[in-house]
Amino acid sequence: MGLTKKSTGASVNNSELIIKKENKSDKVIALAGNPNVGKSTVFNELTGMNQHTGNWPGKTVTNAQGKYTYKNKNFIVVDIPGTYSLMASSVEEEVARNFICFGSPDTIVVVVDATNLERNLNLVLQILEVNNNVIVCVNLLDEAKKKKIEVNFKKISNVLKVPVVGTSARSSQGLDKLKEEIYNLSHNKNKKDNLKVTYPDFLGNILKNIQNTIEKHINNKINSRWLSIKLLDLDESLHKTLNEYLKIDILEYEDVNKVINESWLELEKHNINKENIRDIIVSKIIKTGEKIYKECVTLKNKKYNERDRKIDKILTSKAFGIPIMLMLLGVIFWITIVGANYPSEILSNFLFGIQDKLTIFFEKLGTPDWVHGVLVLGIYRTLAWVISVMLPPMAIFFPIFTLLEDLGYLPRIAFNMDKFFKKACAHGKQALSMCMGFGCNACGVIGCRIIDSPRERLIAIITNSFVPCNGRFPILISIITMFFAGSLLGTWQSIISTLLLTVVILIGIFTTLFISKLLSKTILKGMPSSFVLELPPYRKPQVGKVLLRSIFDRTLFVLGRAVMVAAPAGLIIWLMSNIYIGDLSILKYCTNFLDPFAQLFGLDGVILMAFILGFPANEIVIPIIIMSYMATGNIMDMGSLTELKTLLVDNGWTWITAICTMLFCLMHFPCGTTCITIKKETGSLKWTALSILIPTITGLLMCFVVANVSRLIMMLF
User: Who contacts 302 (Cβ-Cβ below 8 Å, separation ≥6)?
Assistant: First the structure.
């Protein structure tokens, strides 16, 4: 779930399922497999940096393509979505099925987990029904070795009648052999008739009759045996895609309809109907996979996954699952708060030191003051503030988050939170997208792609901004430290700040659940859908790769987007604060206009205007507040939180103002980058507008209640 162009929909020509080749001799390799088998690692190791990404036609499902050269031949690798089956029940499975069946890849590499081969064989057997050009890549051999699992590659290759290669993609083991097999198979070497699942005689005869009938209509465009099976269990989605691919509707032919009707009459004699035909087919595939597994895999330690089960008994238990999750969340926040202070200060001194040099440079050039003001005091100073405040905590938070992801803990969070989201009529996987929102709400919105149900995906998108992103943490931490933990010293101050920040986060989580429930009962009515959540084995994180991935794919990418929106914001802020109408600046007119309205919610016009101007990047809210109170015309930085608190108190701040500002910071409109992402993901201005209005109205209502109840209590007592 990265934050690269892969996740934001870079422009790629995906007008067709068929991958376009630069040269006719190029070979297209489809990389298939279940989730959590290391498929993306295989993809990255094969293609290196020669990758480009986008979305599948008409879908918000990632399409990653990469290239590599072997023996002077070019290979285009397509990393299709992870799927458990070709019997599509989700958008991802539909995309995977359509590319395997209709994308005409030259070779399909099915990546399987050596530690979970029995289940993974189900997908292998389904793909063998469709395509003869298949290679099985048995990955994670290093994990299998630790668990004393031995795979007989020669035997499994003989049984499946396809090349089988063992790999440990994380250490690049076996990838040269995989490239060799891909080369041979894609260039018509070592091709065999693959294993096909054997069905009961009566069903086999029925399929043979259908196959003989349809072959004259499909012109070898698709595997006739697989199509015969699907015609007995044809869903609407597959039927539509099939018609587009064949340019005909196979069911419109009289002889096809006749043989299918006759087939169902025969099947009914064996008590098989349209409701249970899929169960018959799936059951046979599973039994075939079990038989192959028993023949080809040796378990020297039958308790190989006992350690994971013992850990999961604690991490996913009713008694300890949630407390441990909250404790980990608190630890991450504490490390981020404490660890970001010093690098942030160093970075700030460095960047604002450059500002001083730029000022001297402009003075030597003799440029007008307004040019210096716009470029240096407006745009550059805003950028310097955003970078110095945003980069250090991101550089800490994202690697820790990625380590948990690599370790395999994040699916456990989704498991623990599933019952709560189910009660809210939402999807359990929303917990994962919510976690991603802590780093960046835009990232969290993109992460909602893992939710299959369109209704539940929209709920997750609309409510994602109820968890504070990296840009809002500095505001929350500053206010907590100044007004609620400032009297403490040293470690205790950071601990209390962390605990209070965790409480604020919990308020955001409870609000997410409440609004999700409200949406599911009103504009997005429906019942929660069921889903399969795999708990992958715990793995030792690859610290080096995690650091690189989190820094380049996430931290710098998010920072780059923030910089892009902060630069024009700096220009607008400087102009508003330096263009005067009479004795007041435009900014002052705006804050005075908003003040009566803001006072109703425990805020003031300056605070509300700062959030409005901070729409491009929340990091600049505090500097705008400082600038407005000091009437300097430029974004300002205070020397310490003590000085800042004095400034705020002198301008009317109380503990009520502090609480209401934190609540509004927690619950208000998403930043500009997130709004753009919502528009891309939903394709709708309506849902984008609701994603802005719902958190903003919720935040204002909470502020109104807190402010006025507090004022009433103070009057009474």
Answer: none
pLDDT reported for residue 70: 92
CA distances from 489 to 49, 481, 493, 593 (A): 48, 11, 5, 40
Helix 473-483 × helix 641-650 angle, to 10°:
80
C-alpha distances in angstroms, 410 versus 64, 445, 498? Answer: 23, 17, 21
Within 10 A of 237 (CB to CB), how many other CB atoms are there? 15
Gap between the Cα atoms of 651 and 644, Å rounded: 11
Given a cut of 90, whether residue 152 has pLDDT beyond it is yes
**Gyration radius from the chain CA atoms:** 29
What is the rounded CA–CA span in Å between residue 218 and residue 221? 6
Q: For 366-489, where are the alpha helices, taking DSSP H only?
A: 369-372, 381-407, 410-423, 430-439, 441-447, 454-463, 473-483
Burial of 716 (0-12, 13-18, 19+ CB in 10 A): exposed
End-to-end Cα spacing for the chain: 52
* Other residues' Cβ atoms within 10 Å of the Cβ of residue 569: 23
Neighbours of 459 (CB within 10 A): 30
Q: Largest Cα–Cα distance in the chain? A: 96
Say how many C-beta atoms besides its own lie within 10 A of residue 185's C-beta: 24
Q: How sure is the predictor about 60, in pLDDT bands with cuts at 50, 70 and 90?
A: very low
Contacts of 358 (CB under 8 A, 6+ apart): 375, 376, 380
Mean pLDDT taken over the chain: 83
443 near 465, Cβ under 8 Å?
no
d(C-alpha 312, C-alpha 321), whole Å: 9
Residue 2: pLDDT band with limits 50, 70, 90: very low
- pLDDT tens digit sequence for 217-270: 888 888 888 889 888 887 787 888 888 888 888 888 899 889 998 999 888 888
Structure tokens at 607: 């605070």
At 49 the pLDDT is 59
Looking from the CA of 643 toward its CB, the CA atoms found within 13 Å total 7
Tell me the three state secondary structure of residue 108: strand
- Cα gap 556→566, rounded to integer Å: 15
The sign of the dihedral angle between the CA atoms of 257, 258, 260, 261 is: positive
The whole-angstrom separation of Cα 239 and Cα 234 is 6
With pLDDT > 90 as the criterion, what percentage of the chain qualifies? 28
Q: In this structure, what token pair is assigned to residue 581?
A: 């109408």
Mean pLDDT of 81-100: 79
Contact 76, 26 (CB under 8 A): yes
Helices (H) and strands (E) counted in the chain, each on its own, are 31, 11
The C-alpha atoms of residue 652 and residue 674 are separated, in whole angstroms, by 32
Band of residue 430 on the pLDDT scale cut at 50, 70, 90: confident
Q: Which two tokens stand for residue 679?
A: 């528009």
Contact 195, 160 (CB under 8 A): yes
390-420: burial string, b at 16+ Cβ within 10 Å, e else: bbbbbbbbbbbbbbbbbebbbbbbbbbbbeb
- Sequence-separated (6 or more) residues with CB below 8 Å from residue 533: 411, 414, 415, 418, 428, 429
The answer to whether residues 487 and 632 touch, using CB atoms and an 8 Å cutoff, is: no
Calculated CA dihedral for residues 664, 665, 668, 673, nearest 10 degrees: 170
CA 12 to CA 28: how far, in whole Å?
16
Q: Are 71 and 183 in contact (CB under 8 A)?
A: yes
Which pLDDT does position 1 carry in this prediction?
A: 38
- Given a cut of 70, whether residue 554 has pLDDT beyond it is no
Q: How many CA atoms lie within 13 A of 557 on its CB side?
A: 19
**Is the CB of residue 4 less than 8 Å from the CB of residue 53?**
yes
